[in-house]
Design brief:
By secondary structure, the chain is an all-alpha fold. The protein has one domain: Four Helix Bundle (Hemerythrin (Met), subunit A), CATH 1.20.120.
Length: about 240
C-alpha cells in the first residue's frame, strides 16, 4: 500500500521582534546602502514564491543587496549575522508561500507606511518594483502566465515600471484622486492570489532553500590565526576556515 505524501512543515511567520530584527539587519552598515528596503523585499520574495520554480539562491539573493546590478554584497564582520539575516529572509518568503496556499485571503502585501502621521495615499511603488525585479530574473519562465493571462501583472506594472507611471499620468483626472488610487491598490493583493493560484496548479508549492553553512552570505576576510567570526572562540583555520 502506497504511503500518503508527507506534508512539509509550514514556515513559522516572523514574530514582531523578528520583523524588527530583519529591519535592523537590512539597515545596518554591513548591507549596501542601496539594498532593498523591507517593502521592496516583501514584493520580491512574494513573486519568487508565487510564480514559476524560483532560481537558485545565488541568483535571487544578489539582487536583494544590489537591485540595479546584482553585484554588491553585504560585508558582515560576523558570519553569524549574515546567516541570521538569510534565515529571516528565507523564512519570511516561505511563510508568505504558506499563507497564499493555506489562507490566501489573509495575505496582505507589506506596503510602505506614509511618513505623514495623518496618513495619505498608500505607497506601493517599492513593493511593485520588488515584485517585478523577481519576474525580471527569468522573463521566459513567466511567459506562460503572460500569454494566458495578459492582465495578470497589469496593476503591479502600473506602479512598478516607467511605462506604468506614464499610463497613470494619462488617466482621466477622475481616476487620479486618492479614492481611485486606493481602489487600484486594493486590487494588488487579489492579483497576487490569482497569480499564485495559477502557478500552483502547474507546479509544486514553491519554497526558497537556504544552505546550512554559516558563510552563505559574503563575510569579511579573516586571518587564519584570528578568532573565527562565528563566535566559537577557536582560530579561524581550525573552525570555518
Amino acid at each position: 500500500m502506497a504511503q500518503a505524501p508527507v506534508e512539509a512543515p509550514r514556515a513559522e511567520p516572523l514574530s514582531r521582534d523578528e520583523g524588527e530584527e530583519l529591519f535592523e539587519l537590512m539597515s545596518c552598515d554591513a548591507v549596501p546602502e542601496h539594498a532593498m528596503d523591507l517593502s521592496m523585499l516583501d514584493g520580491y520574495l512574494t513573486a519568487l514564491v508565487s510564480g514559476p520554480p524560483p532560481p537558485p539562491l545565488e541568483r535571487w539573493l544578489a539582487w536583494i543587496w544590489d537591485p540595479e546590478n546584482g553585484r554588491d554584497e553585504p560585508d558582515f564582520a560576523r558570519a553569524s549575522d549574515a546567516q541570521r539575516l538569510l534565515e529571516l529572509i528565507v523564512r519570511h518568503a516561505n511563510a508568505t508561500a504558506d499563507l497564499l496556499s493555506a489562507e490566501p485571503e489573509a495575505f496582505v502585501p507589506m506596503f510602505d507606511e506614509h511618513e505623514d502621521a495623518e496618513g495619505g495615499a498608500t505607497i506601493v511603488d517599492a513593493w511593485c518594483y520588488g515584485f517585478l525585479a523577481a519576474v525580471a530574473l527569468d522573463p521566459p519562465a513567466w511567459a506562460p502566465l503572460r500569454a494566458e493571462r495578459p492582465d495578470a501583472l497589469h496593476v503591479i506594472e502600473l506602479y512598478g515600471t516607467e511605462a506604468g507611471w506614464d499610463e497613470l499620468e494619462q488617466l482621466d483626472p477622475a481616476e487620479m484622486d486618492d479614492d481611485a488610487h486606493e481602489r487600484r491598490v486594493a486590487s494588488i493583493a487579489p492579483a497576487v492570489r490569482e497569480i499564485y493560484a495559477w502557478w500552483a496548479a502547474r507546479r509544486p508549492q514553491a519554497a526558497l532553500v537556504a544552505p546550512p553553512a554559516v558563510h552563505t552570505v559574503h563575510a569579511s576576510k579573516v586571518g587564519r590565526n584570528e578568532p573565527c567570526p562565528c563566535g566559537s572562540g577557536r582560530k579561524f583555520k581550525h573552525c570555518h576556515g
